[in-house]
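User: Show me a protein chain along with its predicted structure.
Assistant: Here is one chain, sequence first, then structure tokens.
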Amino acid sequence: MPRQSFLSTEFFVIASEEEARTAVCLLPDHLPQITLLKENMLARSMRFLYEIPDKQVQVYIDVSILLLDNLHVCFSLHGSYPDGHAIHSDIDITNALQHFEQAVHAALKNDFSILQTQQPVKVAKRSSGYFVKALMSILFSKYPA
């Protein structure tokens, strides 16, 4: 995957555009780590600042809401760093986008008790020990003559 300056995700909900916009605008009132920075009515998008607790990391989350029909709305989330540095794949932005999506679903249901504390996804470290052991066993194995 090439280096880029943002990660994105999309999801669909069953709600009207007005309900979806109202729910997203209410997120900063219920979650202290989310701050509404600006709203662009022409492009129908909003920019939020998401602060990751315990890490002192800030992420911009741009939210675009697209009305599909009277009952379905598509949310498009783009996460990037405020300084705009390029990323390949970043666990902090991925976690922020996932938590923001959960928050949108909770706001639409008007039940913020279902939000759990953010559990960061841990990346399993790859062990090169198996490869080295397999290579050594091939090199130093005794073959029958």
